[in-house]
Amino acid sequence: MHKLKTILAGLLCALLITAGCQTVQPEPSASPTPEATPEIVLEPKVTQTPEPTAEPLNLSTTTGLPTTLDYRPVEVMVENSPEARPQSGFNQADVIYEAYVEGQITRFMLVYATQLPPEKVGPVRSARIYYLDLAQEWDGIYTHFGGANDPNASNVYKKFKQITLRGHLDGMTEKNYFWRDSSRKSPHNAYVNISEVTNLYGNGVKMPQTPRQFANFRGGSDAPLAGESVQTLTLPYSSFNKVIYTYNADTGLYSRAIGNKPFTDKETGKQCTAANIIVQYAKHGSYNDKAGHISIGLVGSGNAEYYCDGVMRKGTWEKTSETAQTVFKDEDGKVITLAPGNTYVQIVPTNFKVTRG
User: Fold this and answer.
1) What is the pLDDT of residue 56?
2) Does the UniProt entry include the keyword tRNA-binding (predicted)?
């Protein structure tokens, strides 16, 4: 009996020892999954750039086209002898006059007023009395290289002392704006920078208070003007200066040629064109001096013809004084309406024979 108790006690002790030696491993706890951090997308910073304010568009009084430029007229004398061709700076002029000088040669006066002025215009040549009558009506800076200086009524330097010009640049004495092109022979190589000349406005030369206007212009959406259909116009100034204009219905412009050769601008190589052509008939005379200088009566009145939109209309012109603007009128006595664009004014004698086709 005593032996049985001893055995049971030993078994109980073994069980207790075994139980005490077992280590209960806790189940591994799942690591918490971190919540997804939302992706932050940085939008590019948008700077609100204000739309540029468009410069106000005005209609030019000299072309009828929209312009942002002020009226800053510059008139330039440009020669038209065969040695001077091709000339420079014609495509930017608002109005171009052509009239006789001496020896059946014609000369131009180019008026720059409301288009971007070119940096090279010429060849620049000398002034004549009747061109001063035209220059005064534009109220601008008259630009030339010399002038008739015979001791009689044809002397332009005497005339300069009798009139008032807003500005006056003579290449004979003013060297800052003129230069000689070495690729051409003198005297057919003098040029002027009109961009620099226009900078004289506000820098010693006052702006004209009133822009000059010689005609009305139809609106861009208006119907073409009515009149007698004329597709070609020939002005035989001389055997070496037979001016021919040909109308192009696609462009609405007249292409200018001398004989069968296109009249081109040297700087661009492009043929010169006109939106409008005015033929102004005026009395021609002579000063009877040795140089054969002529006179042209541009103060007064006379007949005129107008070519635009492929048609011709007749009318009159009137200039009441040297400083007054020449006013061109239609057959009804109303100020003429022209197509928007540049204008060539062809001044011819009263008996001049114009051919139309």
Assistant:
1) 57
2) no
